[in-house]
């Protein structure tokens, strides 16, 4: 199973996303089972955020991981821009920890840029790494220019990851950002690696090229999309599903290595942009 290093820890390159989970009491049992199925299949990373369901996603994760050894997990959550000031950030973190039923996060991300000065948010995130409540901090929805600015700050070099939208049909971060992050040893976390239940996701799975690759390897089209997204060693993907069997299959896609022929066909069907587009954000 492919792995990468985040904050000196080796983790499988396919983790578990939780956006849109925890909102519906009728699907809660299945969602918990899906998280557990993913963990049982070999996943370590669970990605959530205080924004997801106004904390309900974090509470769901806390329930799902109750019987797992904390040391075997790599938990990521995110702070909203409105809570990213010196006066509010630690309180927000404490609330996330309580919902997750843990006393620390492995990685805490600034969800996207807001009105609080970046220097203030980064200084507070860095301070929190000395409290024991977070092991590392990072950012999300930052583009190349944002990352350049970040690294100029006094504690900016301590950034442990950046999480952006990335999949076969949305490749803008390949133009500059991904290579730059790899050169600076900053892991890239890809959200919505198989789309987000939208037309793009449907277009990718319906693509004759994707289907042909899936048929050759006797895997699902989703597994092809995930294997493609982690073909480079600096990328972690966090697909979300509420279906336990789908969650297991997602994680097992980490064992699939695409051939040169596969990659050429997929590249021809969904070419990398020739110039850098605005950062794609959901």
From TrEMBL:
Residues 13-268 form the NADP-dependent oxidoreductase domain. PANTHER family: ALDEHYDE REDUCTASE, OXIDOREDUCTASE, ALDO/KETO REDUCTASE FAMILY PROTEIN. The active site is at 52 (proton donor). GO terms for molecular function: oxidoreductase activity. Substrate binds at residue 111. This is Oxidoreductase, aldo keto reductase family protein. The record marks 78 as: Lowers pKa of active site Tyr. It comes from the Bacteria.
């Amino acid at each position: 199973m492919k792995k990468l290093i985040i904050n000196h820890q080796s983790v499988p390159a396919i983790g578990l996303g939780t956006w849109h989970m925890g909102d519906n009491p009728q699907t809660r049992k299945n969602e918990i089972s899906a998280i557990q199925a993913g963990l049982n299949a070999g996943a370590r990373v669970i990605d959530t955020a205080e924004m997801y369901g106004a904390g309900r996603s974090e509470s769901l994760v806390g329930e799902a991981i109750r019987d797992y050894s904390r040391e075997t997990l790599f938990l990521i959550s995110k702070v909203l821009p409105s809570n990213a000031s010196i006066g509010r950030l630690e309180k927000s973190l404490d609330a996330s920890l309580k919902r997750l039923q843990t006393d620390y996060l492995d990685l805490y991300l600034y969800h996207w840029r807001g009105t609080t000065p970046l220097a203030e948010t980064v200084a507070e995130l860095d301070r929190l790494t000395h409290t024991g409540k977070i092991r590392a901090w990072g950012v999300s929805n930052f583009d190349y220019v944002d990352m350049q600015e970040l690294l100029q700050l006094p504690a900016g070099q301590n950034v442990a990851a950046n999480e952006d939208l990335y999949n076969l049909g949305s490749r803008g971060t390949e133009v500059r950002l991904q290579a730059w992050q790899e050169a600076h040893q900053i892991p890239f976390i890809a959200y919505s690696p198989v789309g987000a239940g939208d037309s793009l996701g449907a277009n990718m799975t319906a693509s004759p090229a994707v289907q042909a690759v899936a048929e050759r390897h006797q895997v699902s089209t989703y597994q092809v999309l995930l294997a493609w997204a982690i073909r480079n060693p600096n990328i972690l993907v966090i697909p979300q599903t509420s279906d336990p069997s789908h969650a297991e299959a997602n994680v097992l896609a980490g064992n699939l290595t695409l051939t040169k022929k596969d990659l050429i066909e997929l590249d021809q069907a969904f070419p990398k942009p020739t110039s850098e587009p605005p950062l794609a954000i959901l």
